[in-house]
Structures are given as structure tokens and as C-alpha cells.
Amino acid sequence: MIRLDASTVLLQWSVGGLLFLWVTCRHRKVGIGYGWLLRSTYIIMLIGALVVGLLTKTVLEREIITIGIVIATAVPLLISFLNRKNEEKNLNLNLDLVAPILGIAALVVAALDAGGPPALAIARILIGAIFLGVVSDAMLLGHWYLVQPGLVRSPLLELVRLTGIIWPFELAVLLYPTGMISVINGNIDDGYGGLLGWFWIACTVMTIILVFVTRAALKERQYSAVMAATGLLYLAILTGFGMDLVARATLA
């Protein structure tokens, strides 16, 4: 089973997003403003996770590590801003790996606190973080092409490709018993006569379809293809989050 915890979901989202920030920025192809945008966004979400955790069900170890993740994200943000005229020489992009590494520890703590088979709980939370992070960063990067229109498409293609690679693992851990198979075959009542189970199937199938359609769109040479891909990624975020969060809500 899965416990739906808003603090842990925000933490997952932030940790996954910060991981793929490093994946994209390590090529040094995107402008430094992209790093500022994502670090700032995920710091706000991490603070939200901390506040929600403190106000609802506090998991002390998770909250303490979350404070460390905020600091680990703020440090490269500050260094990048102070050295914005010469960032390539002054910012070690491996600093962006510190926050996701700390995030793994926080998510393991959250998974063990949630109960259930430990290995399955950890796998679901960690893979969920990676899945939510990659699809979110892909959409944000698509928007960045408006700011940096001359940017090559390889960073966006990489994130779209990784979304397709991660999707089967997300599917597997959500189906693994006790999982969505039990909802689909009726052993677990979703409270809506099976409607949530069908909605989950639709979100799951549509997510991978959108990934393939996005990759096809990016093969077109016109600049408008990137904007079309970004619009498709908006839909992929909705279906991807539906895939993850509907399963949590149903199995909670």
C-alpha cells in the first residue's frame, strides 16, 4: 500500500527535478538563467514540503534532511548568481548533485515511515521522484527555448527520451502487489465503482503516447516544433502526475 503524504510528494517532485537539472546543465548548453529558475522553483517547493510536514505529520529525520537539501540547492544558486559573468569557470556543476543525494536519504526515511514492505516502499518513492522530476524538467526546459531560441534540441530530447525509459519502471512498481493490479481486478475497491482504476489506466497509456508524439514533434526542423513539444509535455505532466498520484490515492 501507499500513503499519500503531501510533504513527501513535494519532496519527491523537488528532488527529482533537481537531479535532472544536473543532467541538463552538465552539458553547459543552456543559459545560466535556466539553473536559476529551477533552483529557485525547487527551493520554494522544498520549503513548502518542510512547512506541510511540520504542520501535519512530522517525520523529524525527513524534515532535518530537507533543510539540508534547501541549503545544498541555495549554495550553487548563490555561487551562480555572484559569478554570472563567468559561470563556466567559477561554478562546479557537480555541486547540483549534493541536493539530490541528500534527497535520496530523505525519501528513504519517508518511505520507511510510510510502512508496508520496505523495499517496495523505497522503490516506489525513489522511482516516483525520478519520474515526476524528469517530466517536469522537460516541460520547463521546453519553455526555456523561448528565452534561448538558439538552444540546440539535444537537452530536451534527452529528457524526453529519459521519460520514456523511466515510465516502465514507474508502471512496474505501481502494479506490483499490493498495487494497481488489485484495483483493476476488483480486489481493492476504489470507492467509485472502478472508475479510478480506469482513469489510472488512461493516464498511464496517455503518458507514454505523449512521450512518443513529443519525440516525433522534435524531429521537425521548424522552431514551432519545440513549442508543440512543450504543449504536449504540459499534457504529459497532467497524465504523469495522474499515473502516480491516482495510484497513491487509490492504494492509500
In words, what does this structure look like?
This protein has 10 helices and no strands. With 252 residues, the protein is mainly α.
Which helices and strands, and how do they pair?
Elements: H1 6-25, H2 32-55, H3 60-82, H4 87-90, H5 98-114, H6 118-147, H7 154-175, H8 180-184, H9 195-217, H10 224-251
Helix pairs in contact: 1-2, 1-5, 1-6, 2-3, 3-5, 5-6, 6-7, 6-10, 7-9, 9-10
Radius of gyration: 18 Å
- Beta-strand segment tally: 0
**Biggest β-sheet strands, sense, barrel:** none
Distance between the termini: 6 Å
In DSSP terms, counting alpha (H) and pi (I) runs of 4 or more, how many helices?
10
Give the low-pLDDT segments. none
Helix content: over 70%
H and E order: HHHHHHHHHH
Based on secondary structure, the structural category is mainly alpha
Quaternary = single chain
Rounded mean pLDDT is: 90
The amount of beta strand, in percent, is under 5%
Overall spatial form: flat
